[in-house]
Specification:
heterodimer, A: 88 residues, 0% strand, B: mainly alpha, MetI-like fold, 10 helices
Chain lengths: 88, 250
């Protein structure tokens, strides 16, 4: 199991796992609905204080996008490495 | 507890089903389903264009479509909803109703995900199909329309169905901008009763579960049928598998 099955299984599961990590990261914004003070919540607060809607949402979008793209890039790198190791 | 649930359903089934429709906007389950069906139907042509643009060699088509897909995949749906809700009225100068806001957002978001499904379906088909069609005298678009897409779309049906399920779940987010969908109706019921939040939201969860579970079963059934049919034709890997790996949006 440990030396034969798992390495292959993890290699196959990697793309789906990474996609799920990204969407989990995105879903964390839903915590706003119950008042957890995460990024989206903070942005709405900033927007309520400053009334600069456009700027506030641009910043938040940029932060989310940067994090997701980094996650996707790490995923792509891991996948490329897994393909290399598993390559026949 | 079960008695409470039965009483809540008996008293509020019309509100949960169509909202305050004759006296107000259409809401409840009807609005949820209409919103999801409309957004998937409108997102499909958009997704087709994006997918074709992402497969083209021209940088003027390739770059904007790639950026669009990565932005939609990298930003939470909630953030997109706020963008459309706050910024679009600033640009066009008039207020738009919540239902339309939600529809526009969902078309953008699901369009990006659907385009990845379509692209994966086309890529999974292999280059031989395209080369054969071209050598028989089809133009690029002709080969796409008559040879590649009919096969690819057929293989994609399960993935599109599961994307539809996630669209239904995404419509609940319309709640934050007061779209009168099923979640909104359940919240209204909860605000009337005040003392039975668990029962109300249990009913809500049950309705969503029944719809999404039956659609998921249908997707699994279709997937099995399609891969059986494909393996009957011999030699071809069921592309439904590879297409599904790309659509991991829960």
């Amino acid at each position: 199991m440990r030396y034969v099955m798992m390495p292959q299984a993890v290699r196959n599961a990697l793309p789906a796992l990474i996609n799920h990590t990204v969407s989990l990261f995105k879903n964390s914004s839903l915590a706003m609905a119950i008042g957890v003070s995460e990024l989206t919540h903070a942005v709405r607060e900033v927007e309520n204080l400053s009334f600069r809607v456009f700027e506030a949402y641009t910043i938040a979008t940029a932060i989310y996008l940067a994090c997701s793209l980094v996650l996707m890039a790490i995923g792509a790198a891991l996948q490329a490495r897994a393909a290399q190791v598993g390559g026949r | 507890m079960i008695g409470d649930i039965v009483i809540i359903i008996r008293d509020n089934w019309l509100l949960l089903l169509i909202g305050q429709y004759p006296n107000g906007p259409l809401g409840g389950l009807a609005a949820t389903l209409i919103l999801s069906v409309l957004s998937i139907a409108l997102a499909f042509p958009v997704a087709m264009l994006i997918a074709l643009a992402r497969l083209s060699k021209s940088p003027f088509l390739l770059w904007p479509s790639t950026v669009l897909v990565y932005v939609a995949r990298g930003v939470p749906l909630l953030m997109l909803i706020f963008w459309v809700y706050f910024v679009v009225p600033l640009i066009i100068g008039t207020r738009i109703p919540g239902f339309v806001t939600m529809l526009v957002t969902l078309v953008l978001y699901e369009g990006a995900f659907l385009s990845e499904i379509i692209r994966a379906g086309i890529v999974a088909l292999g280059r031989g199909q395209m080369e054969a069609a071209r050598s028989l005298g089809h133009s690029y678009m002709g080969a796409m329309a008559w040879v590649i897409l009919p096969q690819a779309l057929y293989n994609m049906i399960p993935s599109i169905l599961s994307q539809f399920v996630s669209t239904i779940k995404d419509t609940t987010l319309g709640y934050v901008i007061n779209v009168a969908d099923l979640t909104f109706a359940a919240n209204q019921v909860n605000n009337q009763l005040l003392t039975q939040p668990f029962q109300v939201f249990f009913i809500l969860a049950l309705i969503y579960f029944v719809i999404c579970w039956s659609l998921t079963r249908a997707a699994i059934y279709l997937e099995r049928r399609i891969s059986n049919k494909r393996s009957g034709r011999g030699g071809q890997v069921p592309p439904a598998m590879s297409a599904r790996a790309l659509t991991a949006e829960p």
